[in-house]
Amino acid sequence: MTLRLDFCSTEAARFACEKWHYSKSVPFGKTVKIGVWEDGKFIGAVIFAQGACRHIGRPYNLSMTEVCELCRVALSNHKTPVTKIIAISIKMLKKVCKGMRLIVSYADADEIHHGGIYQAGNWIYEGLKNASSNNLILNGKKIHPRMIYDMFGTRSLDVVKSKCKTFEVVKSKGKHKYLMPLDKEIAGTTVKKALPYPKRAPVVQE
Questions:
Q1: Structural domains of the chain, ranges and CATH numbers in brackets
Q2: pTM, to two decimals
Q3: Which one, of 78, 92, 113, 122, lies nearest residue 32 by Cα?
């Protein structure tokens, strides 16, 4: 089995997200899109972006050009461990973003995710964030409120509601936040924030 990772087009990344990622969407803003192939077959994409939060670097005294978010790991059936694919993707990211010092990623508790792929890759766990915050379900898709302005050009929920076929506000269980420092200084800072890894939620038998 041969594995190849290379930078891919927006169209390829969108195809992977819509077909193999639970969000069925690609992140907004500037992104680094990395395609994944096994035995010459396209099996998905890994996408890094600035993230929905404009102050993502503030807790670590980093600027927007020094920190990014691993937003999507959208893969079909694959033989290569996800941790290996992510590790190679990070090396590629560092080559094109020379000043990058920290990567942030989240495991969505609403989707019963606990961050197993990050734990296997020795990421630092910072805790559960934004529990009991509001999420919006627009036309059947979950949208974080911070994305509203980018999508609709307004923060008015009344305006957004008028533009959607279905509109629902739901309470979130939060997201597990993970950190991958890219240099020794940031590693020393972020390791102080480390908490014990959360465990996978038990499967409920009906």
A1: 3-131+173-193 (3.40.630.30), 134-171 (no CATH)
A2: 0.82
A3: 92
